[in-house]
Amino acid sequence: PKGQGSIMSFFNKK
Amino acid sequence: MLEARLDQAEILKKVVDAIKDLVQDCNFDCNDSGIALQAMDNSHVALVSMNLQADSFAPYRCDRNIALGVNLTSLTKVLRAAQNTDILTLRALDAPDSLNLVFESQDKDRISEYDLKLMDIDQEHLGIPETEYAATIKMPSVEFRRICTDLMALSESVTIEASKDGIKFTCSGDIGNGSVTLRQHTNVENEKENIEIELSEPVALTFSLKYLVNFCKAAGLSNTVTICLSNEVPLLVSYALTSKAGSNLRFYLAPKIGD
User: Fold this and answer.
1) Which of B83, B179, B203, B212 could form a disulfide with B170 if both were Cys (CB 3.0 to 4.6 A apart)?
2) Would the CB atoms of A3 and B252 count as touching at under 8 Å?
């Protein structure tokens, strides 16, 4: 969605 | 093998009910410390994390790490057959292709048994860093649900501001704008009504209300909800699943950017 951050940009892949 | 007996089927019923609109397929990861689940919604905006520690079950046995790949719509169909007060037992082999669920009435006069087919789910696991949040709010879960639902009638997003004056939820939409301010509140006679605010620095973040309203489906699991905020990190909305520490249902929501 526009203007919406992704959770993946905050939490790293294990 | 896994054998896990929950005294009240209600917990699992409500967990699945609270997350099934966000997540369709997910692994229930079982090991000797308990059963955990982590999954993102399709748009990767929200993350659901459930932990049911081994001490939430009696007995609990899990010899090896087992991933139970479950379609939540299918699990809902099976769990519909369990009464809230039923004793629920989950059983699975070490490399299972199905999950066995037994529901027993408390009087033990009815025993229902179901086998749910499992699926292979290749799910990414995200590392959630330990965060010292700038603001932590503990409040009645129904109150939080009401605020989110009321504001969603006006707007698709809400700004949550934590300051020394309290916690302010603000939204603006085509028909007008609205805000709700919460202040610290202690009800000596009814602790469940308390609003506790811990603040180390002011915070202001904007979130999609659609997701918050979705998280509030978990309100039936716990009288209170804990909301944690820090600038530029995902919001954490946490519900305790049992009176024992460490068993919880958590939702993380990425903030809106650019405004």
Assistant:
1) B179
2) no
